[in-house]
Amino acid sequence: MSFCLxxxxxxxxxxxxxxxxxxxPILSQVKVFSSPKIIIGNSTRNTSFFNKLPxxxxxxxxxxxxxxxxxxxxxxxxxxxxxxxxGQVLGLGKANMLWPGLSAPIIRxxxxxxxxxxxxxxxxxxxxxxxxxxxxxxxxxxxxxLERGWSGNxxxxxxxxxxxxxxxxxxxxxxxxxxxxxxxxxxxxxFGRKRRQSTFVVTGNKxxxxxxxxxxxxDPKAALRKAKNRAGQKLMHIDIFxxxxxxxxxxxxxxxxxxxxxxxxxxxGLVCHRAIKTxxxxxxxxxxxxxxxxxxxxxxxxKAFFLGxxxxxxxxxxxxxxxxxLVEFSKDNEYYPxxxxxxxxxxxxxxxxxxxxxxxxxxxxxxxxxxxRKKFPIFYTKHKSWEVHLKKQEYLRNLDxxxxxxxxxxxxxxxxxxxxxxxxxxxxxxxxxxxxxxE
Length: 439
Hints:
Residues 192-238 form the S5 DRBM domain. Helices cover 26% and strands 18% of the residues. The protein is built from twelve helices and 16 strands. It has helices spanning 6-18, 24-29, 55-63, 67-71, 124-134, 220-232, 274-283, 298-310, 315-322, 360-364, 384-392, 399-410, and strands at 2-3, 37-38, 97-98, 107-108, 111-112, 116-117, 175-188, 192-204, 209-217, 236-237, 250-254, 257-263, 270-271, 288-294, 326-328, 338-341. The chain has a four-stranded antiparallel sheet, sandwiched between helices. A four-stranded mixed sheet has the order 11-12-14-13. The termini are far apart.
């Protein structure tokens, strides 16, 4: 590319001659060439090729297959797309700081949240490496049996740790478990269909202190954190009878959900709906039976169960209400009567009205009856061979109970003819003689 500057020189000389202005400063900045020069220009690229394309286009280059190739079965062993930002949460890093407005709400309740240092997680880097190693794998990520929830890797039933500390108050000994984890939609006039994650959790210290709450957010982790912290602010105290069960049987209801709860002895376990079992674990109840009737909405089940726990009466309140002694007959105590509470003024037998409910279970259930499934006889009881079997085993009926009674009464198995006929005694196996090696 070449330029000629001779015509420019003539134009400048003509302008100087005809102009009244002083153009020496201008001419001092203009460099006039007497001969033409050749200027060579090279095209340059100031940006990299990789900076122009997003990550999805780059991953597409090594993970995509044409439609014709998919039909022929190609691309089954290609690399899988990996999310290199997985496990990295905005506002949470190695320092593990609590940033208001970023990793925590600005206002919690009536308190303004301040920046604070949370306990360090020594296994943070290890968990990130495990997440990245498992990315792109064909098989799904498996949890250990202790970390699993109600069904596989899904969130309901899983533990998410204690709520975040509020100021100097730390939730030591608390554990939070997820009850419900679902996606909800809300239609807006200006934003359209708004999608959010809804979580329902329950938290407790396994010693009678528990609470539940709901949290909604676009990010699932934010929804879990919000619900967990709200549950920590709504704690309720619940009485636990002898540290393992409820005070008494009770009936509770919320909406269309009805629950009949029964008190059980130690060692019975939690025989109930899985949502009630999860609530009992965080509260500290170990032995319980609960029958759910009607709707099985987990939120209604949890709310109904908490209502029943809070409406429990103490034994003294029951005794004062009925003006009678409250006596316990337990199988563990060989049904020996034990007085649990006595009223200030006790009624006599002639003062009790004929239509009054005296059954303790009916009194606790407020006159309701549990709907039980009808029990049908076992199929083989209708056969003729079963009748023959019963006739053959007739002489052995109650044999175990009779032997136990005789040993307790006489110290040995004997009958009323033993004194007259000493040979009417069971054969005793002689003790085994000890060998020299055993001695």
